Amino acid sequence: MTVPAATLSAPSNPLSRFVTGPFLLAVDATAAILFAADLAVVLVSVLYRYVLNDPVEWADDAARGLLVGLSFFGAASALARGENVGIEFFVAGLSGRARGWIDAASAIAIVIVTVATALDALALADSTSGQTSGSGLPLNPPFYEMAAAALCMAVFAIERIWRHDLADIAVAAGAVAALLLVWFLWDLLAPETMPSPPYIMLAVFVLSLVGGVPIGFVLALATLVFIWYEGSLPGIIFAQQMARGIDNFVLLAIPFFILVGYMMEANGMSVRLIELLQRGVGRLRGGLNVVMVLAMVIFSGISGSKMADVAAVGSVLIPAARRAKQNPGNAVALLAASAVMAETIPPCINLIILGFVANISIGGLFVAGLIPAGLMALALIAVAITFGTRAVFAADDLRARTPLLALAGSALVSLGLILIIFVGFRSGFATATEISAFAVLYSLVVGGLVFRELTWRSTARTFVHSATRSGLVLFIVAAAQSFAFTLTIQQIPHALAQAMVELSHAPPRSSSSGRYWCRSAPSSASRRCITASSW
Question: Residues 413, 21: contact at Cβ < 8 Å?
């Protein structure tokens, strides 16, 4: 997957050039090394378990511990590049000065969250010192990884604050200090009138979300405010729940499938598959659009990351649409619609998270998503053919750059990834994580030995990009776990469920606006509806 150059380098100011830039390189290297180590542990574990019939007892614990470090260092890399997901709709409509104040306040909120995460993780690591897991591995190394990554995020957040004018920073810091002062004085002078913790947590959640704070940090900040305000919970609970949210072997499938998507572009698979599709249907009416839909179906069946799929397909077909004198805007719209269609094609990351959270069979979810995806793909292809035009190719595009037989052979080698994934899930031979690890190994072998397009440099960049995207997703999962924990101890889900049950059993109201009047029988739950004239 190609990442724009603007997102690959730190902002060009003195602090970034001499401090944050080298710091980001160290974070990227750490994330990539943790990623490679995690992949190696899983592959060695699978080899010993299925080939040598000698399971490695500590492999699962080691893989989960490495996943925690990978997630947080990847999240730090995403923060440095400004790739965190947030709601910018409300902030985008403000004036330049007000926007600067809000952005500076958002950066201050991120600093508060990252520093608190680092301190709580260090405290948790110290409290678990000397404790071991069931396999004999120490428990505290993942918490040290969390603390180190959180401190890196704090550095990047401070650099983000430094981009603003001093006046904007002063206004934002003054607003945050004023809120804290009001909170302290209110609690000191009239503690009995203080609102309950759930309302405070809700207010912080809404204000930070509307203010453009990235979603993962919104969830973490709301959780921290509840812990600080409620007062009875120790801070290490926050770090413990953050780690617990991603300390699961199943979630390793997410970074591995994301890595497969990046490998497809780096090793030449995507170009070969798209060129074969263009040879087949590219010259038909609406052919390029049909190629785009089919390519998204194939790539989504290999990679679980829609970001990787869109980049791999769009980087080839959007320029082809321009050369064919077609409207590139329509091509981009179709690419976006195809990405939505691909959300139900296995191995989708969202289906993996749903299966993990709801304790549903991931393989069953994958099979269940095939029919909806097929129907949506057929609908998009029908629209592309009906409203499409015949592409006008340039002379260079009409020239066969690769013999058709050789191209078909390369495409079949690429389609071997689909065979590995679907046969693995259908047979139940391996778990989603193990299948994704084998898919990564297959793409490395194909790119390095068969196509000979995968270099050491491109492999390293692919691991860095994959770690960044994985950290972006998994940090939100970790923060959501801590937020869900605070909701659970307040029994908010139970209260909502009870309210919905009461609403469904509430007695109906009489209404004179309809043709019928309904009333409840006094001695039973049944109802009797009669016409207005007989009432």
Answer: no
CA separation, residue 117 to residues 20, 76, 532 (Å)? 20, 13, 64
Per-residue confidence (pLDDT) for residue 217, from 0 to 100? 95
Please write the tens of the pLDDT for every residue from 251-281: 888 899 888 888 887 887 777 777 777 777 7
Instruction: Say what the pLDDT of residue 462 is.
Output: 92
What does the radius of gyration of the chain's CA atoms come to, in whole angstroms? 27
Consecutive H or E run containing 467: helix 456-489
Determine which helix (DSSP H) or strand (DSSP E) holds 529, and give its type and residue range.
Answer: strand 527-531
* Global confidence as pTM: 0.81
Q: What is the pLDDT of residues 369-384, one digit of tens each?
A: 888 888 888 888 888 8
Given its phi and psi angles, is residue 268 left (phi above 0), alpha (psi -120 to 50 degrees) or beta? left
CB atoms within 10 A of CB 336: 12
Q: What gap in Å lies between CA 435 and CA 141, rounded to an integer?
A: 27
Are the beta carbons of 48 and 439 closer than 8 angstroms? no
* Single-letter code of the amino acid located at 343: E
Higher pLDDT, 421 or 14: 421
268-303 exposure pattern, b = at least 16 Cβ within 10 A, e = fewer: bbbbbbbbbbbbebbebebbbbbbbbbbbbbbbbbb
Report the C-alpha gap between 258 and 443 in whole angstroms: 12
Neighbours of 90 (CB within 10 A): 12
Distance CA 479, CA 268 (A): 36
**Residue 224: other Cβ atoms inside 10 A:** 21
Q: What is the pLDDT of residue 67?
A: 94
Cβ atoms of residues 95 and 103 within 8 Å: no
- What is residue 473's three-state secondary structure? helix
Q: Where are the domains of the chain?
A: 5-250, 268-453, 510-535
The DSSP bridge partners found for residue 390 are 285
Q: Is the pLDDT of residue 72 over 90?
A: yes
HSE-up of residue 145 (Cα within 13 Å, Cβ side): 25
Structure letter (DSSP) for residue 11: -
pLDDT at 390: 63
Percent of the chain whose predicted confidence (pLDDT) is above 90? 26
- Is the pLDDT confidence value at 389 over 90? no
149-162 burial: b if 16+ Cβ within 10 Å, else e: bbbbbbbbbbbbbb
Distant-in-sequence, close-in-space partners of 176: CB < 8 Å, separation ≥ 6: 105, 108, 109
